[in-house]
Amino acid sequence: SVINTSTNTVVASIPVGNFPSGVAVSPDGSLVYVTNFNDKTVSVIGTATNTVITTVFLSGSPADVAVNADGTRIYISDSANDSVSVISFTASTP
After folding, report:
1. Digits of tens for pLDDT over the chain (94 positions)?
2. What is the pTM of this model?
3. Which of 20, 22, 31, 59 could form a disulfide with 64 if both were Cys (CB 3.0 to 4.6 A apart)?
């Protein structure tokens, strides 16, 4: 959900995958990354439109997500495989 903090109201709800478990925001605020535990995916949301702009499919069970300082990589913990996946983005992706 997107919440207007000055009015404390929900202004949008964004459907993502099954059992969303982790959320991270890009440094510039333009993207939000949501890990979907049961779907084994990461939903990438564009904040300008409040829509999922791409979905990244993973193996294992993605849990938490973090973004590096310049927004070019996300790190996803995988509780099924005791590992961390790294996804790199360029100017043309997602």
Report:
1. 999 999 999 999 999 999 999 999 999 999 999 999 999 999 999 999 999 999 999 988 899 999 999 999 999 999 888 899 999 976 555 5
2. 0.89
3. 22
3-state SS, the chain, equals: CEEECCCCEEEECCCCCCCEEEEEECCCCCEEEEEECCCCEEEEEECCCCEEEEEEECCCCEEEEEECCCCCEEEEEECCCCEEEEEECCCCCC
Distance, in Å, from the CA atom of 49 to the CA atom of 34, rounded to the nearest integer, reads 16
Cα–Cα distance, 12 to 7 (Å, whole number): 13
